[in-house]
Specification:
Order of helices and strands: HHHH
Largest sheet: none
Shape: elongated
Helix content: 40-55%
Radius of gyration: 22 Å
Structural class: mainly alpha
Oligomer: single chain
Length: 76
C-alpha cells in the first residue's frame, strides 16, 4: 500500500480530524475514501438507479423550444 504525506494548515487539519471522528474512522481512511470517490470512473450506484425515475421529464429539445434564439456569441 502506498503512503502519501500531506501538509495541511492548522484549520484544515482540525477540520479533517473532526470529519474523520464524526465518520468514526481514521484520518487516513477518511482521506483515502474521499480520493476514491473523487477519482471514480463510474457514477455511484445511487445515481444509476435514478435512470428512468422521471418518465414524464421532457426531452432537452422540448425544454429548449420555449427559450427562443440564443444571443450572438462574441468570437475571441
Amino acid at each position: 500500500m502506498a503512503q502519501v504525506t500531506l501538509y495541511l494548515d492548522a484549520n484544515t487539519a482540525t477540520r479533517l480530524r473532526a470529519a474523520a471522528h464524526a465518520a468514526g474512522t481514521s484520518q487516513s481512511r477518511w482521506v483515502a475514501e474521499l480520493i476514491r470517490r473523487r477519482v471514480a470512473s463510474e457514477w455511484p450506484e445511487a445515481v444509476t438507479k435514478l435512470a428512468g425515475a422521471w418518465p414524464e421529464l421532457p426531452e432537452a429539445e422540448e425544454l429548449r423550444t420555449a427559450l427562443g434564439e440564443d444571443a450572438p456569441r462574441e468570437r475571441l
